[in-house]
Give the backbone structure.
Amino acid sequence: MTATPSEAPHLQPSATQPQAAPSALAVDGLSLSFGGVTALNGVSFTVAVGEIRAVIGPNGAGKSSLLNAVSGLYRPDSGRVWLGGHSFAAVPTDRLAALGVSRTFQNLALFKGLSVLDNVAAGLTHRLRAGVLAQVIGLPTARRERADAYDRAEALLAFLHLEDARDRPVGTLPYGVQKRVELARALVARPRLLLLDEPMAGMTLTEKQELTGCIRVARDDLGATIVLIEHDIGVVMGLSDRIAVLDYGRLIGDGTPEAIRNNQAVIDAYLGVAHDLEAGEGI
Amino acid sequence: MTDLALDKPVPPNAAGPNRTAPTARRGMVRPSPTALGVGLLLAVAFGLLPLVGSEYLFDAILTPFLALALAGLGLNILTGYAGQVSLGSAAFMAVGAYAAFNLSLRLPELPFVVDILLAGLVAAAVGLVFGLPSLRLRGFYLAVSTLAAQFFVQWVFNKVGWFSNNSPSGIVTVPPLSVAGLALDGSVGRYLFGLSVVSVVTLVVWRLVDSPTGRALAALRDHETAARVIGLPVLRLKLLAFAVSSFIIGVAGVLWAFAYLRTVEPAGFNLDRSFQILFIVIIGGLASLRGAFLGAALIVVFPLALARLGETLLGGLFDSGVLEMSQRIVLGLLIIAFLIAEPAGLSALLDRLWHRIAGRLTALCSRLCPRSGSNRSV
Amino acid sequence: MDWSFFTEVLVGGLLSGVMYSLVAIGFVLIYKTSGVLNFAQGALLLFAALTFVSLTERGLPFWAGIALTLAAMTAIGALIERTVLRPLVNQPPITLFMATLGVSYVIEGAAQLLWGTQVHGLDLGIDDLPLEIGGVLISTFDLFAAAVAGAMVAGLTLFFRYTRIGLGFRAVADDPLAALAVGLSLDRIWTAVWTASGVVALVAGLLWGARLGVQFSLSLVVLKALPVLVLGGFDSIAGAIVGGLIVGAVEKLAEVYAGPLVGGGIEGWIAYVAALGFLLIRPAGLFGAKPVERV
Ligand SMILES: Nc1ncnc2c1ncn2[C@@H]1O[C@H](COP(=O)(O)OP(=O)(O)O)[C@@H](O)[C@H]1O
Ligand SMILES: [Mg+2]
């Protein structure tokens, strides 16, 4: 991870990265609106390397918009995003993978017509060096590269218990399984930063527990820094190192689970309103 | 779960499923049913048919079938695999046909095989130009923009005399087909020539769609945003799809002109032809190589069958006007029926039929001879 | 440059552009409510004109012919909606488009099988005398067509603003799920929309038929409407009108001033190329604000 503030400023002299410790991701004063709707309103926070960082907030709070801005799918009206030692006004989506960032989507974004294995292996396609012709002719380098990618994909299938679905077209699988396939696709490239938008939505309790374990392993053993949007407060409290709370596009709380639990603004704006969140899942 | 060794190569006997299929591990490779089927088809097409087929079979059915199947294959790369709808396929057929005509006319010293390749490349280049809008447009906007190619190209061959060697309204008669000194201008020769070209191109296309690049095209089709996020070069892939697709459709145009009709005019590459190719792909099955062949077979055979049927049933009432109209109606109904009942096309239909037959056969075999039955079923 | 000639060409172009708008509006109606680019619009137009002409040729009075044709168009519209589009609901838009392509083949075939393939003249009783306005010659027929188109747009606007069905239509166009949730009947609205587009097809068919003669090529006017839609956006009636005017003007001006340089006949593609060029500069079209894809 090279996103240290000491290297970054020459790219953007006027802005200084908000935090001293090396961070995997920082957003600074992000604002974004759609027509009259303000999705993000001057949001600033950092994600430290190796951290599991949760982003919570009621529906429509701007959580997905935040991840979309970080991955360059939405272009913020103002503010900057720091990624991998660079500062961007608009993150170039095409370079995300090269920057070591992967993500999953709130609504499944799989390649429906492809098999599970192909979906996961697609996460490595950007690394392939062989040209089309080499692939078509079947030159040894192309074959080796490909076999290697598929071996890694298989290993991830094993990790996420997806072996049985390996050759099924992904569109035919149950929702929870598809969610895991998407996670596998994001993980296969060994990202430095992994952005997860409600990866557990619609999952059973057991599935959630399993996935929680997977996310931990992704951080502990694969070295990914993780930003996690999740509605299940129980999961969030147990899993994350720090939590950012959004409400109406504003950051209304930021700190350890303990601090958030006791943060009056958060309780008023969020936990208080949707009290049933404590009990389980809030949609 | 924590024992994760993503970086180490997977040992061949790891607990998880291995990538080598069980049959291949046994040392003696048993050919798959698909390979057997394709081999058999090729044997019949190359070996048997030329001996027994009639001139009518070659000239009216098989040769146009080959050309259209190839065009379908080309469009399938763009539409079926990469998800970009084109309504201008006939334009690229025309480009291929006219390019090959001019090459053989103006550079007669070039071998015809080189002409074909160059004609394909010219079509690919034109396809690239008309594929540029795909970088910014999607869906209907893109589909409509491909009509620009359709109308512009047709107009150019009509109006610019150079392309047709100054023949009125662009009608050209191509030189007789001969490859490496071998005259192939008879029905069988032209058929065999078409068959060879189609076989080679199909092999290459199969390799392509099976490659990581092919998978990347499908990824682009299924979810462009996700494809971008995982770092696929979306713009390059789109242009590649347009170029490869146009190349193949251009070669199909060469076959259309040199192997099938031998006299072509721009009006023969009109919008109806583009739709015909689109229909081939829909009826046959999107993103299926077989589909292009099945669709083309249906599109070539059904008008002939309808004509026969109409004659038998209605006799004199069934004149050419009525025939044309009923063909239009039936074709339209076919499209609608396939889209509603079998969106994956003939290819999927065949699959299902095959599974049912295979299932029955297996059941039958195991009942007749309980012990050896399982060996015989395919 | 001869400015009065230029003006004449321009005005002629604008007026014929109105005829394009007329066809394009039929598309927009369907697209807005069902998200379908209805390629069969041209075939419907052909069918309407052919039916009307054949009926009046068989001695039916004008208004009876209109009424009968209208009934037929309504029935066909409802039939398409029920038998083709409804089973395909939730399919990707491009599948629906291809289905309407199939529909257009069926209708074209059926129309000609039913009424024959010969060319019919269609006389609406409007002389096509050139009228001089401010030194510029304008075709009366074009003026009449423009007036009809204008009246139709006004009528549609009133319909959508003040009738229950019309309001329902707008609700569906904005958000089908929400419309469903508040108890609007999608069935009735869709049927109404297909009927409305049948009416538009009839009007456009009569005007175009009077201009070109009623024959197969009438269904090809659909190809004139597509660049208009690309320019104006598939979902905007205002876009269809302005787009039509632009396409009409560009086409005529190009035909007159650029055509002779390149051998003529460029009206077949110039509109497409112009629309494409425009889109490359402004991908959202004339009026559209490009929506940000939600993920
Ligand atoms: N692509 C978009 N177009 C228009 N409005 C959007 C878009 N994406 C998000 N919004 C709006 O921005 C606000 C925040 O949405 P979102 O970020 O999805 O919230 P969350 O993920 O916290 O539920 C909502 O009001 C939503 O309607
Ligand atoms: Mg969200």
Notes: The domain at 19-100+191-283 of chain A is CATH 3.40.50.300 (Rossmann fold). Residues 140-159 of chain A form the longest helix (20 residues).
